[in-house]
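Weekly structure sync - notes
Attendees: PM, LS, DV (DV joined late)
Agenda: review two folding runs queued last week.

Item 1: First target. Sequence and structure tokens pasted below for the record.
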Amino acid sequence: MNLNFSDEQQMLRELIQKFCESDYTFEKREEIIKSGEGFNKDFWQQFSELGWLSLPFKEDSGGLGCGPVELSILFEEFGKVLVVEPYLSTVVLSGTILDNSSFARRMELIEGIITGEKHLSLAYIEPNQNFDHSAPQTTASHQGNNIIVNGKKSLVLNGGRANHFIVMVTLDDETALVLIDKDQTGVSLNQYPTVDGQTCAELEFENVSISNDEIIAIGDEAKRLLTEALNLATLCVSAESIGCMTACYLQTVEYTKGRQQFGQPISNFQVLQHRMVDMFIETEMCKSLLFKAMLECDSDEDTKAQSVSALKYQVGTAGKSVAQQAVQLHGGMGVSEEMLIGHYLKKLVAVDALFGNADYHLHKFSK
């Protein structure tokens, strides 16, 4: 198994690192969050110009034809500076579903995503489902040449800024994915910020009428498209978490070298060295599982879902542990809003709950 990144992949990482270090400062991130927009339009357009929005799309869809490895690189670097732009919701979740479907408007929507003009969000979570989304309570029924959608969706990432929603419904006793425009009559939403600086929305559909042409997929195809998108998204947020863990470890080591106690840097104290070594080991273990999972996803192995679950479990448990150690070693500064360390902990807690927590993926892995 070749564990070396190609020259093109190394160049991609260096380009992302350069952007993150020079443009995506902590102050700029705070400014974006306080604006309430959920992202910076100039940065989003820059993502488009750099080709990042077209990374995972097939070449015949106008994309670059990259895969899970390149996405993992992107998200790992994004995690180091806690990028809040809605790449996950628009490109990974919605984009993957569209790119793998035979939907008539597929090319039009993907082109809008690649140019940065359109935002799409996947609405599949419903209240009180406990990570089981196999039987949506949101219903769709035929009425002449149209279908009528009724129901509610929760935790719709970037829902307040999306132009279109890909909605999971029950149609004729089968699971279906349908496209609903944000401005459609009967669509209402409530946007709110999340603890990690992202934005989400609660959606309600009341007698929303759409044409039969807006059905993206139905039955087994709809389930397959959703499963593939969620598996890839889980891989991406796990890579993002590893970026957070790496930054936690490196920033903690640097901080302890500069903080003096009893006339010497606290990094000289053996008990603190042991704790930082533990942080490093936990991070490297997660990186090893990331390599396995992303390579299996890239080659479409039968065991890819199991490997992603193993990765998500390890990230969910180790990630919070590493961030908690980092916060404690920073002392009171670790919980202040003025330092990134506390924000890494918030991000890792939020990621653990996204797409199934550690307990859920441990159970899924053992099945």
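Item 2: Second target, run right after the first with the same settings.
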Amino acid sequence: LVLLKQTERANAMLARLSSFLRYTLANEPTAQVTLAQEVETLKLYLEIEKMRFEDRLRPHFRIDPATIGARLPSLLLQPLVENAIKYAVTPSESGADIWIRAERQGQGIRIEVTDSGAGTASGLTAHDSTGVGLANIRDRLAQAYGAAHGFQTRQNEHGGFSVILDIPFHGAGRNKQETT
């Protein structure tokens, strides 16, 4: 953007990138944030990526209001969205849709990151590539919730790839010890 002398867009991108980097530096990986904070951070990240991919990146949020106070590890969802961009948006000339959904299910919440890319039809599995992103998410979930969580991947109804997280509902203002 700077080389193309698109000063206004470059300034906007740098401002968003600065905000995102400040957030990542201010929050330790073991810190917990509300789902509302995590969604706002995802939106900031997606605004940055949208400047790269423009109309090829089509994010959609379906967040049940009953879930916004749920606490989860900071930046838990960002690598999942990053994978969706890498494997669904980047290789497709027409881009892809990415859905981030959250809903209450009993004493927990289900969070799903889904894309409309080629999914498992292209041979992509949870163990392809370096596997670092998904393995990191599994490890962070195990550290935060022990056996009280679920993690699954599958091809979805859009033909793309989905990652589904089931975690206990720990509301804002309460710590993990009070809710277990």
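Discussion on item 2: The first helix runs from residue 7 to 26.
Action: LS to circulate a short write-up before next sync.
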